[in-house]
């Protein structure tokens, strides 16, 4: 059966069900990747075997055609669990060649670049890879080490006289002067990017504002990484047909590890400015407990994600984005490992070098955040908010509503 005849079949079924003729001419899409998603979803819409796997399929059944905004929305709603590839009777080598995870991943990568702010920096997504991330961290480490050496002589780089106080090397106000502008730029750039995405997908997802129940359910979906459970709780796929919960668990370790580290830094800022309690903090202070737990979680999570990424089935994703994925994972691991090493080596002569390594990794991570894999969390959260809003509205085609 040819693809056009499947589409015609879908049209006939919809027409019969609703009692009217519904045009299903392909909606305007622009790139080959977007057209491929629209093509595959037309076939899925006639098949619907994978309806219970994730949020994408119920959202798909609310549509008869897939325009650019629909494709961008659905691509970011997909969690790349791989379930619909392994279940699909039309997957390669079938002539239909249905590979939803790969088609969605390709469009997702494109949306990060298309919605990037400022737009001219969108092409950095293609260049943001493992080599660049590590080279940036190494360059910053050398730069900071050089700055320390020039300020205090080589002896300062390897000195047991610094005690446990790294503000002797980099004064607090200097660190704030470096990190505050970078952090604010990252937040602003990500906000502007996701704002443009939101403006495009909102009209295509009912146009209704997000309600409190929709926001609460979307938050739960994000915090639980619900759609990495394969729809049945046994997990998703990685290298083969076997279900595994490893991807969900390592994502959780990474996600919550990152949040705990961020909370430790935020709390340290409150301690400094509100109470005048200067770092470094020691156990059992709350910033140190949060930082230690977060660091361990980040290290375990990113090590696991690295291994899973390297062994991932090649049909699951867009191979061109692998360097970007690995670059982000490597920087997160480096930040966590150097932070833990700094803590353990705080009373040794290696303090200055460990501090330069940690600061270099943190600055490199933040500098690449708006143009790297971090974007997937932001865009997917926005898509889940739209999904939980849209599904509370009546189906626009009167069929297949949740
Ligand atoms: S991925 Fe394959 S099996 Fe699943 S709904 Fe689409 S066409 Fe059907
Ligand atoms: S890869 Fe997983 S999350 Fe993505 S559409 Fe398929 S089943 Fe849904």
TrEMBL record:
<keyword id="KW-1133">Transmembrane helix</keyword>
<feature type="transmembrane region" description="Helical">
    <location>
        <begin position="170"/>
        <end position="192"/>
    </location>
</feature>
<dbReference type="InterPro" id="IPR036197">
    <property type="entry name" value="NarG-like_sf"/>
</dbReference>
<feature type="transmembrane region" description="Helical">
    <location>
        <begin position="130"/>
        <end position="150"/>
    </location>
</feature>
<feature type="transmembrane region" description="Helical">
    <location>
        <begin position="286"/>
        <end position="306"/>
    </location>
</feature>
<keyword id="KW-0812">Transmembrane</keyword>
<feature type="transmembrane region" description="Helical">
    <location>
        <begin position="350"/>
        <end position="371"/>
    </location>
</feature>
<feature type="transmembrane region" description="Helical">
    <location>
        <begin position="326"/>
        <end position="344"/>
    </location>
</feature>
<keyword id="KW-0472">Membrane</keyword>
<protein>
    <submittedName>
        <fullName>Tricarballylate utilization 4Fe-4S protein TcuB</fullName>
    </submittedName>
</protein>
<dbReference type="InterPro" id="IPR012830">
    <property type="entry name" value="Citrate_utilization_prot_B"/>
</dbReference>
<feature type="transmembrane region" description="Helical">
    <location>
        <begin position="253"/>
        <end position="274"/>
    </location>
</feature>
């Amino acid at each position: 059966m040819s693809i056009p005849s499947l589409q015609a079949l879908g049209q006939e079924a919809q027409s019969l069900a609703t009692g009217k003729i519904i045009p299903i001419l392909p909606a305007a899409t622009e790139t080959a990747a977007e057209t491929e998603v629209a093509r595959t979803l037309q076939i899925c819409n006639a098949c619907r075997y994978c309806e219970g796997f994730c949020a994408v399929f119920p959202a798909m059944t609310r549509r008869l055609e897939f325009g650019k905004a629909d494709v961008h929305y659905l691509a970011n709603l997909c969690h790349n669990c791989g379930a619909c590839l392994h279940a699909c009777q039309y997957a390669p080598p079938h002539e239909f060649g249905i590979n939803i995870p790969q088609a969605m991943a390709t469009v997702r990568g494109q949306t990060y670049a298309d919605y990037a702010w400022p737009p001219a920096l969108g092409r950095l997504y293609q260049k943001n890879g493992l080599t660049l991330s590590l080279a940036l961290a190494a360059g910053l480490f050398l730069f900071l080490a050089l700055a320390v050496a020039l300020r205090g002589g080589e002896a300062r780089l390897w000195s047991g006289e610094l005690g446990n106080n790294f503000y002797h090397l980099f004064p607090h106000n200097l660190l704030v002067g470096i990190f505050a502008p970078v952090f604010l730029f990252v937040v602003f750039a990500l906000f502007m990017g996701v704002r443009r995405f939101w403006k495009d997908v909102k009209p295509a997802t009912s146009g209704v504002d997000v309600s409190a129940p929709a926001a609460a359910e979307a938050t739960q979906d994000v915090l639980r990484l619900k759609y990495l459970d394969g729809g049945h709780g046994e997990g998703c796929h990685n290298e083969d047909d076997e279900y595994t919960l490893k991807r969900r668990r390592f994502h959780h370790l990474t996600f919550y590890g990152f949040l705990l580290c961020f909370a430790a830094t935020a709390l340290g800022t409150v301690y400094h400015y509100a109470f005048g309690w200067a770092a470094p903090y020691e156990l059992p202070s709350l910033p140190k407990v949060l930082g230690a737990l977060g660091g361990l979680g980040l290290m375990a999570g990113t090590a696991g994600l690295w291994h899973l990424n390297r062994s991932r089935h090649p049909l699951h994703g867009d191979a061109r984005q692998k360097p970007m994925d690995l670059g982000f994972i490597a920087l997160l691991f480096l930040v966590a490992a150097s932070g833990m090493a700094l803590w353990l080596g705080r009373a040794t002569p290696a303090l200055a070098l460990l501090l330069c390594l940690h600061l270099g990794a943190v600055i490199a991570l933040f500098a690449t955040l708006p143009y790297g894999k971090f974007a997937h969390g932001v865009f997917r959260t926005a898509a889940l908010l739209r999904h939980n809003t849209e599904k509370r509205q009546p189906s626009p085609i009167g069929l297949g509503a949740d």
